[in-house]
Design a protein that fits this description.
The chain is α/β, with parallel strands linked by helices. Helix content is about 30%, strand content about 20%. β3, α3 and β4 form a beta-alpha-beta unit. It is elongated.
Length: about 230
Amino acid sequence: MLHDPPLLTIHRGHRRPDKALVEAFRGAQTSHLCDAMDGRGALDYRIKPLDPGNAAFAGPAITGWTSPADVVGMFGTLAEAEPGDVLVVACDAFTGTAVLGDLAAGMMRNKGCAAFVTDGLARDRAGILETGLPVFAAGISPNSPARKGLGVVGLPVNLGGVQVRPGDILVGDADGVVVVPLDRAEAVLEALGQVHTAEEKAVRRVAEGAVMSPAMEPILAAARVIG
C-alpha cells in the first residue's frame, strides 16, 4: 500500500427501515421467514445464541468489519449504533480470540441496542448473560483481542454465508438469525402471511392424525418401486 489506512473508517448515510416495518417482523419465527424467502436467509448454523432462552429480537442492521484478533471495528460499530439497532460485526470468522466481552455487551445494552451478531467468538459468557443482550456468536473463547485496527463501519459485510447491508432487517430466535434484505422486506412480509396460513393448516392436519405431507403424496404415487 502507498499509504497506511486509518485505523477506523466510518461510512454514513445508509437507508433505515421504517419503525413500523421492523415491528411487523417482531416475533416472527426464523424458520417461517426462511420459508417466505425461498428457503434461504439464515446465517451459518454455527452462529447461535449464547442464551437460547433470550434470543428473540428484530431490528435494523448496523454493520461493521473488524480485523481478526481486533475490536476497533466492533467499537466503531457501537459508536454509530442507534437504539433498536442490531450490531452485525464480521471478523472473517476468526476464532483465535473473542470479538466481544461482557463489558462491551453491557455498553450495547446501555445504548439500547437490540442484539449483537458476529461470525467470531465471544468471551465472559456469564457476564454477557447478565446484561440481557441477545448475543449470537460462533462460540466462546477467553482469548482477548487487541485495539490496533483496522475497522470499517457502515458497508455491506459477508457473515455466515449471507451478505448483510446496513438497514437490512435481522430477526433472531433460538434457532438462529435470518437476514431480510431491506429492498425485499415488504414482499417478504406478504409472503410470511401466506406461510402462516399454510402452517396453520399443516398443524391442524398433524393434530388430526396425518402421517404424510400432501405435497409428497403424488411424488410417492409416481415413485419407481424396485423389488
